[in-house]
Amino acid sequence: MNVKEKEIEYVKNGKRVDGRKIDELRPIKIDVGVIDRADGSCYLEWGQNKIMAAVYGPREALPKHIQNPYRALVNYHYRMATFSVPDRKSPKPGRREMEISKVSGEALEKAIFLEKYPNTTIDVFVEILDSNAGTRVAGLAAASVALADAGIPMKDIVAAVGVGKIAGEVVLDLNKTEEDAPDAVDIPIAILPRTEEIVLLQMDGLLKLDEWKKALKMGIEGCKKVYELQKTALRKAYLEAEKEEKVKENAK
Amino acid sequence: MQSDASLELRTDRIREMITQGNRFDSRKLDEYRKIEIIKNISENAEGSARVKLGKTDVVAGVKLIVGTPYPDNPDEGTISIGAEFLPIASPFFEAGPPKIGETELARVVDRGIRESKCIDFKKLCITENEKVWIAFVDIYTINDDGNLFDASSIAALSALLEAKVPKIEDDKIVKGEYTGKLHLARKPLLCTTYKIGGKLVSDPTFVEAQGMDARFSVATTEDNYLTAFQKGGSGSFSPKEIDECIDLSFRHGKAIRNLL
């Protein structure tokens, strides 16, 4: 297996295993308002990753003792479907899912005007239906769009991206083949793009300081690209809805 | 011990003090409390350590267990890090299955050590495809006076540095006999910087940490590698603040490494 891994040239003439450039994102598709019962929702495809996000709330936080009289709670649930990975994933929530839920929820807290909704909870559900590396950032990007769709007041839309290192090169948005490279480093980043405030940042791997500086720069640029796609999707959804209303009114 | 109400009331005061650059115990903002490392606190453990960081107190122990390798790495052993916030350590800890705080702490400490490649997992192989060593590192809190992340990281690393590999005969562990120490090629340490009242603060006490907006943990090695990041809390950091946190982690990591 190791011999085979060594034969892969992860970056050749500036091109990666899937033909992307070093700082190129995988194709991203965002649909807004896809779940009728939810207050806000989003379906997002990011390369092979397929994610369904829904927001319920603000609604009364229960049991009552968890309520905060000063602000709303953000309850983020990141779950992977059993069939979303090559080997069947155990249906019970694992340690990884718990940790991702925690840091992603905290990332959204900075964006939302929580103090407007005391004693409530804003429940954010992110279901991974298909995965190929980078699901936590894709999930967070989808969740932010779903929050906007739910009409929850926010300072900014949280934009997220993965950045990392393979075969000594700093690259944007690693896919699964790249993430499985022997010395791959993965760094999920989420920011509030207008102010470049960092709201989520994790890393594991061996990284030198100069490589990190390069990665951060690439990550912020990448987040801004995702941000544009998020805004475009929201604009499209709401401008279309407005147009439809107008057509209906005119028909009357 | 503080009650809930007095903590709520003191949060604003804490932020105010820290904004002015002051701390209750007159430390500088980037100064750690006294660190004490006591090795080999349990004879049954393959390696163990107790770490006191001011009044914060944690223990960690290593047990090596014979297990089966993962099918994708048939010739590699592994490590597994767990953490438990014992209810003896704080009025806010409850007995029961691990909660998210414990899970996050264990996973972040795990990443710092695992990703530094300080342990050669191939050397933990006993028989390919069949038997490997699994090093279980379990961290328990004794007293929570803040900064459990850093105290746990020091304790886990100290315990691993002490750990011995049991002797095996006829596929059975020979009790009390060892073939040698577990070799660690690097000494990865996690140092966390808290953002309180707009300032960056090292090693906050429990009370100081109540005023926290966000925290950022960075694991570093003696050969200037970064091996893990974790941002926590509902606040944010600017890219410049992240740089400052990384510098602090390198500096404190170096100082703490001298105590091991």
Short note summarizing the structure:
Chain A is of the alpha+beta class and 252 residues long.
Could you characterize the architecture of this molecule?
The complex is a heterodimer of chains A (252) and B (260). With 252 residues, chain A is an alpha+beta fold. Chain A has one domain (2-251): 2-Layer Sandwich (Ribosomal Protein S5, domain 2). Chain A is 34% helix and 31% strand. Chain A contains five helices and eleven strands, in the order H-E-E-E-E-E-E-H-E-H-E-E-H-E-E-H. Chain A has helices at residues 2-7, 95-111, 135-149, 176-179, 209-251; strands at residues 11-12, 15-16, 28-32, 40-46, 49-60, 73-80, 120-130, 159-166, 169-172, 185-192, 197-207. Chain A has a five-stranded mixed sheet with strand order 3-4-5-7-6. A four-stranded antiparallel sheet of chain A has the order 9-8-10-11. A two-stranded antiparallel sheet of chain A has the order 1-2. In chain A, helix 3 packs parallel to helix 5. Chain A is globular and about 65 Å long. Chain B is of the alpha+beta class and 260 residues long. Chain B has one domain: Ribosomal Protein S5, domain 2. In chain B, the strands form three sheets. In chain B, strands 1, 2, 3, 4, 5 and 6 form a six-stranded mixed sheet that branches. Chain B has a four-stranded antiparallel sheet with strand order 10-9-11-12, with helices on both faces. A two-stranded antiparallel ribbon of chain B has the order 7-8. In chain B, a hairpin with a 2-residue loop joins strand 7 and strand 8 (172-181). In chain B, helix 2 (100-114) packs across helix 3 (148-162). The longest helix of chain B has 19 residues, at 239-257. The model of chain B has no long low-confidence stretch (mean pLDDT 93). The interface between A and B is medium-sized, with 30 and 31 residues. Strand 11 of chain A pairs antiparallel with strand 12 of chain B.
